[in-house]
Write a structure and sequence with these properties.
- One of its GO terms (biological process) is L-valine biosynthetic process.
- This protein has 370 residues and is of the alpha+beta class.
- It has eight helices and 18 strands.
- It binds 2-OXO-4-methylpentanoic acid.
- The site of 2-OXO-4-methylpentanoic acid has 5 residues, from loops.
Length: 370
């Protein structure tokens, strides 16, 4: 059984203890990434009845706070969890907009299919975001490169230890004011090559946005950080060390002829909404964009010969962040002191321009939230 937004009506329970205007202003003055949360959360529950029919119900916006879960809840044992990331942007006239929420809703459902979680109607996904942001609109920052990061997620809440898909599930959205993901001013980051660990394998969950993929990336991310790097690069060691993705973002290369290359969607990497938007925007800017296999050897040789002029990371959280150096114990490709590339920054400005209302949205990518 599928539900529509018409069937799912949100009730609103306002927080009795919202943060004070002073406390909020202090947070918004220096939001960082993912450290502070707004006053409310949106929730929609799902239950499968005795006849095997599932339905979404009890849609609500309620005060932000701890979730009460049975210790046997499926998410705690078998990791049946998926999530999304998108942002709410404040435009110059004070209005608040989000970017391609339908694309995030569709990807959530692809992830849900892979993780044997229920399909959530796209309208319910968007409605949950609208209702939450309507309540917490004072939390949307207006600084350059800042936004309210929205984190929708779905978890198995049924208490049951057999290994099977849960019959009780909860979809939730939380929100967190965000500045630069990597902190401070935007500057090229260093990336660590993971040789020992892979992020995903054929037939696995690499194309799904599930917590398990990120859990599996953490040991490599710790290794990266211990070598002074901000992110880790995962390769496919069974496919000529093809470049896959970073711990939490996709990768693009700008070649010396001005064209762009990004790893093709192989089933083991995430189809980033930012990645797909960059492909469209760059083509509109007159650039050729090719999705294909690109190996570590090609990255190394391309930087050495000048064939590769710029490299950047992209994602909702990272937006577009230049990559300066790629390294491991045996080699260094590029330079820590590299400057942000011109093409990288031009695409970043254009994409952020659309998101923040400074550049015309010719694709209908923006949805007004408040
Ligand atoms: C995002 O860009 O939204 C991500 O999910 C990356 C990371 C913060 C997990």
């Amino acid at each position: 059984m599928t539900a529509t937004a018409q069937d799912v009506t949100f009730t609103i329970q306002r927080s009795e203890t919202p943060k004070s205007a002073e406390e909020r202003a202090e947070i918004l003055a220096n939001p960082g990434f993912g450290n502070h949360f707004t006053d409310h959360t949106a929730v929609v529950d799902y239950t499968v009845d005795a006849d095997g029919n599932g339905s979404w119900h009890d849609a609500r916006v309620e005060p932000y706070g701890p979730i009460s879960l049975d210790p046997a809840a499926g998410v705690l044992h078998y990791g049946q969890e998926i999530f999304e990331g998108l942002k709410a942007y404040r435009h110059a006239d004070g209005s608040i907009w989000t970017f391609r929420p339908d694309a995030n809703a569709r990807r959530l459902n692809k992830s849900a299919e892979r993780l044997a979680l229920p399909q959530l109607p796209e309208e319910v996904f968007v409605e949950a975001i609208k209702r939450l942001v309507a309540e917490d609109q004072d939390w949307v920052p207006s600084g350059d490169g800042e936004a309210l990061y929205l984190r929708p997620f779905m978890i198995a809440t049924e208490a049951f230890l057999g290994v099977r898909p849960a019959r009780e599930v909860s979809f939730r959205v939380i929100a967190s004011p965000a500045g630069n993901y990597f902190g401070g001013e935007l500057k090229p980051v260093s990336i660590w090559i993971s040789r020992q660990y892979a992020r995903a394998g054929r037939g696995g969950t690499g194309a799904a946005k599930c917590g398990g993929n990120y859990a599996a990336s953490l040991i490599a991310q710790m290794e990266a950080e211990s070598h002074g790097c901000k992110q880790v690069l995962f390769l496919d060691p069974f496919n000529d060390n093809a470049v896959e993705e970073l711990g939490g973002m996709n990768v693009f290369f700008v070649l010396k002829d001005g064209s762009l290359v990004t790893p093709a969607l192989s089933g083991t990497i995430l189809e980033g909404v930012t990645r797909s938007s960059i492909i469209t925007v760059a083509r509109e800017m007159g650039r050729e964009v090719v999705e294909r296999k690109i190996t570590l050897d090609e990255w190394r040789d391309g930087v050495a010969s000048g064939e590769i002029a710029e490299v950047f990371a992209c994602g909702t959280a990272a937006v577009i962040t230049p990559i300066g150096l790629l390294k491991d114990e045996t080699e260094s490709i590029g330079s820590e002191d590299a400057k942000a590339g011109e093409v990288t920054m031009a695409i970043r400005e254009r994409l952020l321009g659309i998101q923040t209302g400074k550049v015309e949205d010719t694709h209908g990518w923006l949805t007004r939230l408040a």
